[in-house]
Amino acid sequence: MNNHTPYHEVDQLDPRHFIIVKGARVNNLKNVNVAIPRNQLVVITGLSGSGKSSLAFDTLFAEGQRMYIESLSSYARQFLGKLEKPDVDYIRGISPAIAIEQKTNNKNPRSTVGTITEIYEYLKLLYARIGTTYSPISGQKVTRNTVSDVVDYIYSHPAGTKAIISYPLQLDANANPIERLKVELAKGFTRIIYAGKTTFIEDILSSEQALTSHDISILIDRFVVDQEDRDNQFRIADSIQTAFFEGKGTCYVEIVGKEQKVFSDRFEQDGMAFEIPSVNLFSFNNSYGACKTCDGFGKILGIDIDKVIPNRTLSVYEGAIYPWKSQSMHKWLQPLIENERYKDFPIHRPYKDLTAEEQTFLWKGDGNFKGIDGFFQYLQEKIHKIQYRILLSRYRGKTTCPDCQGTRIRKDASYVKIEGKAITELLLMPIAEVARFFNSLSLPVHAQQIADRLLVEIRNRLSYMEQVGLSYLTLNRQSATLSGGEYQRIKLATALGSTLVDTLYILDEPTIGLHPRDTQKLIDILVALKNLGNTVIVVEHEEELMQVADQLIDIGPEAGSKGGELVFQGDWDALKNFNQSHTARYLNGIETIPVPTQRRKPQYNITFKGIRENNLKDVDVTIPLGVLTVITGVSGSGKSTLVKRIIYPALANKLEIYKEKPGSFDSLEGDYDLIKYIEFVDQNPIGKSSRSNPVTYVKAYEHIRQLFADQPLAKQRSYQPSYFSFNVEGGRCEACQGEGKITIEMQFMADITLTCESCHGKRFKQEALEIKYKDHDIASVLDMTVDDASYFFRDQTSIYRKLKPLRDVGLGYVTLGQPSSSLSGGEAQRLKLATYLDKSHQQEHTLFIFDEPTTGLHVHDISKLLTAINNLISVGNSVLVIEHTTELIKCADWIIDLGPEGGDQGGEIVFSGTPEDMIQLSNNHTAEYLRKKLI
């Protein structure tokens, strides 16, 4: 099926076997008819902006979710999102749809990997049900007695055994026992055990006998053990319950003539009272379980070691302890240097080379040397004086909570363990280690019966997390710190855990952020999802994923107004014999991105020494300037930490344009003074408002408005440029306030978006539309694509120059008035790049940092991106890129590869050099895949 499926063929297909789409016109789709086989893995590909997402998400997902929601009751629908019906003739055979996108919308600081995967919910329940509490003092198991325990003890003795139940009289140190006995008598208790004898309370009171000891027990019950008398058992249990209540948790049982045993229903050991394990004890999202020091956030405002000791390569004698470098504060260091008792302390050794004991001594001190902690305690005591308050504030920062060690849970939750592991330990371990712990876990029979169902859920979810290549994450990792690809793969793992069948899963480029080494794992997951009985549709450019797809759908032939058509549908073998699309020509080798014939030589460089943030292991990194440098490595190897937590914040702080504290490193050396500007081009959306659009973002619209205001009729009517703005009153349509559409709320049904009756979607009043330039009004200009507008304004230098960078980065298909909120992450990143290209001639010596700029890009568009990047370098700038796509890596001048694996097994610089040198490596994951592109 290499072209549009004819209408009659679509109509004749069975919806039980196909998802049938007829007449899809969403965005740029041109009456597309397509039949997608059910319960298969289908890849939708095509150029950026060709209409892939419009078909997959705006058509299929929107209709699948809308139809499911509308099947619910009107009461249920009021709590759910209201979905707009897509512009399509009909869709048949569609299942309830789940979209797994890359948007990390969850910025809640309390959201973690453990909570969004639900693994932590099961862990809390597991520890609450079978966890054993141990005393941190003796390490002994903490237990409490129940009424059943005492009854079992009593009935462990033979029939005829005489027993007495009593409880200790609770007396304060100076209390009068006689007065307290009167109270007990009033409660109905008549006898006490005192000095080993049973005595009536009334006899004590009438004889006014002085009680010389406070060791008095109140007798509750006396009986003979009878194994057959059930009523007697209930009476005994009631007496025991009374003893626990009146004795404040203590009950005495005397087996007459043999022994007396003490039972306690208090959860205590070694003089400490412990909390009984419950789900809330392990929850950092409520006040009961959250760490009291950090309120469940894991961080506090404390003394920041990186501010106190900013350069760990210095020794104590050389001034490693920054606050003691001043003349007035040097006195705090003098005892360590001058006192004979500290002669063995290595004051000339770099701080980073000191042993853990030596570093602890430096902070804690002893009798004569107060230590760094003592210094800050002194400042705290003098905080009423402003100079000390200012000095103390210089060294404060967000630090890991000392009580919970960043786990967010109250400290005593760590006393509860399963097979020697506390829940706090599991939270800080990589998922791979947590999985190993649970896979080898062996429990006693009773605990196993309780934990069976919980362990199945925990093990399955951990296994899915490993399968999607996220074994390096910890359960305590904040959701907000995850990349788009990581977040999407977590949602994919969660979907697998739900084991739904007959569901439509739609994924948005799940290979983004994934090293080619891990792509096969992802493919196995998608195939497993399909084999459960689901239809899996993936919007993707990855060749390896296309090869295993049951069906390929290529949308094109170009992008924007020249796209939106079905140019190919078939399997991989059929695509190899088809050369009528960019996708086919690149995959068949007809079109290629050429390898540079010569690599640029770096003239200058900067070096970061002693980087220790997250999993980076005290590494030194040298970054060349004036060239294209690519940071590579498997997922979780430390790329994002290196760039986002070290390089960008440190350099931006030097330029005084960014105040966030960088991660831990010793020093920045080299030619960093040559960097005059720094630009971090990420994938965050450029605007959430429907009024924000590409033409306003690149500052071209102000020139267009001025052009229309300069037209003779506009001058005659005294129209100012603001008259042609849809953001302010004037020429815009006030009925829709310049939106062109009006949304009508339908309460239980999806909101209806209608074209404005007043302006008919033009956004402007008729008076504004009467102003024309080359027979086009302002509304028709906003409807032009960037490519069309560039030709239209070819003689208007100021406008053409603003639009040209958009074409250079492959955004020629975007319309000038398209809402920025509808742009993908990759499109938003390229839009930002376009603004920098526009001013690159003004800003030389800029370091551009890109976070996976090939996100959402077809190989054809990567070629355009590389041209734009090379243009930046050609005018004297430097470019640093985090990337997995080998098409871009092969064009780098310099590669810095991290690894060798992810998580704790990563964080090292395994290679630094040119691509030609890299492919000589034998045991390198990146080199293995790069070699295929260079040889």
Write a brief caption for the model.
With 935 residues, the protein is of the alpha/beta class.
Describe the model.
Pfam families: UvrA_DNA-bind, UvrA_inter. It comes from Amoebophilus asiaticus (strain 5a2). With 935 residues, this protein is α/β, with parallel strands linked by helices. It folds into five domains: 7-104 and 483-587, P-loop containing nucleotide triphosphate hydrolases (Rossmann fold); 147-266, Ribulose 1,5 Bisphosphate Carboxylase/Oxygenase; 299-400, ABC transporter ATPase domain-like (Helicase, Ruva Protein, domain 3, Orthogonal Bundle); 594-686 and 823-935, P-loop containing nucleotide triphosphate hydrolases (Rossmann fold); 691-810, ABC transporter ATPase like fold (Up-down Bundle), CATH 1.20.1580.10. It is built from 35 helices and 33 strands. α5 (119-130) runs antiparallel to α17 (445-467) and α16 packs antiparallel against α17. It is globular, with a radius of gyration of 36 Å.
Label this structure with key terms:
alpha/beta; Rossmann fold; Ribulose 1,5 Bisphosphate Carboxylase/Oxygenase; Helicase, Ruva Protein, domain 3; 5 domains; six-stranded mixed beta sheet; six-stranded antiparallel beta sheet; globular
CATH topology of the largest domain: Rossmann fold
Output the radius of gyration. Answer: 36 Å
User: Which homologous superfamily in CATH is the superfamily of the largest domain?
Assistant: P-loop containing nucleotide triphosphate hydrolases
Q: Can you count the beta strands? A: 33
Please give the CATH class of the largest domain. Alpha Beta
Total domains: 5
Protein structure class: alpha/beta
Report strand %: 15-25%
Using the 3D structure, state the CATH architecture of the largest domain. Answer: 3-Layer(aba) Sandwich
> Cα distance, first to last residue?
35 Å
Level of helix content? Answer: 25-40%
User: What is the averaged pLDDT score?
Assistant: 86
* Strand line-up of the largest beta sheet: 5-19-20-3-21-22
- Cα shape: globular
User: Largest beta sheet, briefly?
Assistant: 6 strands, mixed
Q: State the low-pLDDT regions, or none.
A: 1-8
